[in-house]
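User: I'm putting together notes for a lab meeting next week and I want to include a structural view of one of the chains we've been expressing. I don't have a solved structure, so I'd like a prediction I can at least talk through. The sequence is below, exactly as it appears in our construct file.
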Amino acid sequence: MRYDSFIAGNSPYHRFDVRAKIIFTVLMCVSVFFAMPLCLQYTLTVLALILSLSSVGVKTTLKTLSLTLPVVIFMILFMPLQERSGLPLVTIRGFTLITHEGLMTVQVLLNRFITISVLCTLLIQTASSRDILLALRFFRLPYNASLVLSLALRFIPSFASTFSRIRDSQRLRLPNPDENEKGKGGYISLMPTFTSALVVALKSIGTTAAFLDLRGYGRNVKRSDFHRLPMGLKQFTHLAVSVILPLIFMVTLEVIYG
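Assistant: Thanks for the context. Below is the predicted structure for the 258-residue chain, given as structure tokens.
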């Protein structure tokens, strides 16, 4: 079980104050829902990927994208079918399969989803769990809520890797690990993996509960702070930049395309 998804590094984004990164991530995730041309949506996605590449490297960025691939494929396959009006692009025997409007909608949603996924994942990859918890406390979020939220952010990236490890161990039990079991469909062949993942999740309840208890979750005694995030001119500058740049971007979008 992984309690921390932090990847040590010395990139500019690593050195950026964690409070500023949280504000920047939230504001940028909000800004992608503003009305803007599709080319600008692609630009935001590319900038998010460049930020990830420069901070955590190519391998980690590709791994992040691979985790979003199933959702991306699902959106590509089914979203055009939900937009029935507009100019038909692909028609099969009189049935409109893809319309121009549906294709545009898919591109917008894909860019939003990838941008948000990359930025949120980058936050927990470039900031330690302790710093995230201290930053949430700095924003006056209750300690219990801060702890639960930091745990949730920390465990999300480990779900896919845990599932992959279980899947690989299941395949090694086959006579020929390079081939799937014959006579079983996709969902049926995944049942042993899902069952094992459920067992792992149930077994981790005690460990997670103990971890929460050690952190003081559920106690009524007033907690003392052993660590505090520094607050000087450098940190204030980071906070100002994280607020000013996204706000300028959102105000500009609202004025031009609102």
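A couple of points you could mention at the meeting. The longest strand covers residues 88-92. The helical segments are 12-15, 18-31, 38-82, 100-126, 129-138, 143-171, 186-214, 233-257.

User: Perfect, that's what I needed.
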